[in-house]
């Protein structure tokens, strides 16, 4: 079993496709550019507690997001970061799950009810709002 710090550092050596990142100075947070959601570049922070890997890290976007499963504060409604967490998940599997969620929202578990409603009822307007966020991500990155 890898030590938590070692597992965190593996992101640098073997990142998932479309992801780059590295531990910050204090080796607790990873700033990640996550390419997804129609090729936007979104930054997120992963914070590990002393209880990792027994407890999931805290993951939140610092980039502005418009997505059914992302709260206004950037935190993510994703089962593996909550009730379906397993100590076998590493940073790569977390980021891969987030990429999948960005590409395939779950409107049945909304963190952003407006985004969820548009996703279900008005795809054209939803895609317009997402496009604006993607374009903003290019400016911010």
TrEMBL record:
Pfam families: UQ_con. It comes from the Eukaryota. GO terms for molecular function: ATP binding; transferase activity. Keywords: ATP-binding, Nucleotide-binding, Transferase, Ubl conjugation pathway. Belongs to the ubiquitin-conjugating enzyme family. The keyword Transferase applies. The active site is at residue 77. Gene3D superfamilies: Ubiquitin Conjugating Enzyme (3.10.110.10). CDD domains: UBCc_UBE2A_2B. Residues 1-139 form the UBC core domain. This is Ubiquitin conjugating enzyme E2 B. PANTHER family: UBIQUITIN-CONJUGATING ENZYME E2.
């Amino acid at each position: 079993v890898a030590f938590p710090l070692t597992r965190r550092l593996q992101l640098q050596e073997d990142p998932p496709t479309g992801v780059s990142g590295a531990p910050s100075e204090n080796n607790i947070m990873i700033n990640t550019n996550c390419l997804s959601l129609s090729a936007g570049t979104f930054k997120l922070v992963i914070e590990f507690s002393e209880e990792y890997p027994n407890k999931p890290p805290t993951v939140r976007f610092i980039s502005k997001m418009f997505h059914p499963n992302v709260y206004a504060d950037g935190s993510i409604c994703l089962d593996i970061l909550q009730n379906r967490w397993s100590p076998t998940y590493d940073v790569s599997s977390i980021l891969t799950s987030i990429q999948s969620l960005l590409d395939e929202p779950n409107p049945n578990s909304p963190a952003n009810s407006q985004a969820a409603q548009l996703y279900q009822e008005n795809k054209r307007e939803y895609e317009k709002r997402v496009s604006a966020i993607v374009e903003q991500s290019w400016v911010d990155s």
